[in-house]
Structure formats: structure tokens, C-alpha cells
């Protein structure tokens, strides 16, 4: 099982050894043991659904998930990706709103599910975790702002260059240096805000220009400098 990032140790401790935190009564500990879950999902399985009422948070132990919204035309707009150590659903819990986006597994994932009341109690008693969540909110807002900016101001070619660099920075690479995610051409098109045919053509052009290597749905960046310049990217 993958380890959580260091700043999520409190959540890991909450799940695996909640009595060591000293913030719950005996009755609450019994209730928590009954309600907590380890979820094992396969590719394509739903984690949360846009518009649903949140009941808890989802902490990724292993794997990658995509967060997305469905537009008025029925098209999917990918907002961001979450991987091991990331939390899904906390913003809706804190704002007491329905989920503003959906999330599905991009590959086999394992998740800690923690009911709302226990997550809130932990935040109230743990300033370090509360500050971490605040930082994550700020980071997510930055990602959303960057998405709005490149969709509104950059050409499709520039958007593809930036997205590939951001995906590599966020998700890392495998042993052969391919980005750790497998996206369909339709998903790539939705990510950069264009038609599937345009995404296919641009990926082919990037391959011809030796900016990337393509192996099925996997992509390897060959020339980071040129992609950075092309996408006007500051990582």
C-alpha cells in the first residue's frame, strides 16, 4: 500500500489508529470503526457524483482519479487529476454544498473513506492538518485559475503543450519515462477544450516534430524545453 504524503499523516493515523489521537470518546471510536471504509475500485468506477450530497471525504492511497464537470452540451470537462495522497470531497464538506464535480478512477485505486463528522473533529483538534487543507484549497484554486486562463487565452496547440507538462509534473513518469496516465484521445480533447479530431491531429504533429513519443494511449515528452517555450509555461 502506498504511503500518504507526510502532511497527511494525521489522516492516516485517524484511519489506522484513531484512539492514539486522543480526540474521540470511546463511543465515537466504536462508531468510527463501523463507518470507515477501504474502497478498492477499478478503472471507470465512480467515486463521487456532481450534485450529490457529501457524506465524507475520500483519501487516495493508490492510483489516479479524474475530477470533471459535464457541460450543458453533455461534454466532459476535466478539471484536474488526483493521485496518492490527495483528498477528494473536502471542499464540499467544508462549504456544506453538494459536490461541484464528479470523480472517477483512471486506473485501479484504493481509497480511505472517512465520514464527515470525524474529519471535521480532526480538523478542529489538529491545526497542522487544518493548515494543510487550507493550503490544498489554495492550490486547487490556483489549478482552476490556470485552467480558465489557458482555455480562454491560449491556442489549442499551446494548451496541449502546457497540459502535457502539467500532467508529467503532477503524475510523474513510469520506468520508460511515459507519463503515468493513459488517456483516450477524447479525454485529451476534453482536457484541452477542443474537438477529438483536433486533438488527434495535434498529437500526431507533436510526434512528427519529435516533441513527444506516443505508444497507444501513453505519451512520453522528448523535448521539455521546446514544449515549455511553445506552451508559454511556468512550472
TrEMBL record:
Pfam hit, one: HTH_Crp_2
Keyword annotations: DNA-binding, Transcription, Transcription regulation
Matches recorded under PROSITE patterns:
CNMP_BINDING_3, HTH_CRP_2
**Has UniProt tagged this entry with the keyword DNA-binding?**
yes
Q: Which GO terms describe its molecular function?
A: DNA binding; DNA-binding transcription factor activity
Outline the extent of the Cyclic nucleotide-binding domain.
Answer: 28-140
* Record-linked CDD domains: CAP_ED
InterPro entries reported for this sequence: cNMP-bd_dom, cNMP-bd_dom_sf, Env_Response_Regulators, HTH_CRP, RmlC-like_jellyroll, WH-like_DNA-bd_sf, WH_DNA-bd_sf
User: Gene3D superfamilies, alphabetically?
Assistant: Jelly Rolls, Winged helix-like DNA-binding domain superfamily/Winged helix DNA-binding domain
Highest taxon in the source lineage: Bacteria
A GO cellular component annotated for this chain's UniProt record is:
cytosol
- Annotated HTH crp-type domain ranges read 154-225
Full protein name: Crp/Fnr family transcriptional regulator
What is the species of this protein? Faecalibacter macacae
Amino acid at each position: 500500500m502506498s504511503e500518504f504524503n507526510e502532511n497527511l499523516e494525521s489522516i492516516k493515523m485517524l484511519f489506522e489508529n484513531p484512539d492514539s489521537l486522543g480526540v474521540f470518546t470511546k463511543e465515537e471510536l466504536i462508531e468510527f470503526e463501523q463507518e470507515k471504509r477501504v474502497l478498492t475500485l477499478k478503472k471507470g468506477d465512480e467515486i463521487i457524483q456532481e450534485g450529490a450530497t457529501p457524506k465524507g471525504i475520500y483519501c487516495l492511497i493508490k492510483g489516479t482519479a479524474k475530477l470533471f464537470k459535464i457541460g450543458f452540451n453533455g461534454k466532459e470537462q476535466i478539471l484536474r487529476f488526483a493521485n496518492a495522497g490527495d483528498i477528494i470531497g473536502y471542499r464540499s464538506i467544508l462549504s456544506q454544498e453538494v459536490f461541484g464535480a464528479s470523480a472517477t478512477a483512471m486506473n485501479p485505486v484504493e481509497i480511505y473513506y472517512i465520514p464527515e463528522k470525524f474529519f471535521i473533529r480532526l480538523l478542529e483538534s489538529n491545526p497542522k492538518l487544518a493548515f494543510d487543507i487550507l493550503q490544498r484549497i489554495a492550490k486547487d484554486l490556483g489549478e482552476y485559475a490556470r485552467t480558465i486562463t489557458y482555455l480562454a487565452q491560449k491556442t489549442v496547440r499551446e494548451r496541449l503543450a502546457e497540459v502535457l507538462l502539467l500532467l508529467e509534473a503532477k503524475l510523474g513518469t513510469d520506468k520508460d519515462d511515459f507519463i503515468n496516465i493513459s488517456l483516450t484521445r477524447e479525454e485529451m480533447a476534453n482536457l484541452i477544450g477542443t474537438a477529438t479530431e483536433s486533438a488527434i491531429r495535434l498529437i500526431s504533429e507533436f510526434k512528427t516534430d519529435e516533441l513527444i513519443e506516443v505508444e497507444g494511449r501513453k505519451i512520453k515528452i522528448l523535448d521539455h524545453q521546446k514544449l515549455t517555450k511553445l506552451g508559454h509555461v511556468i512550472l
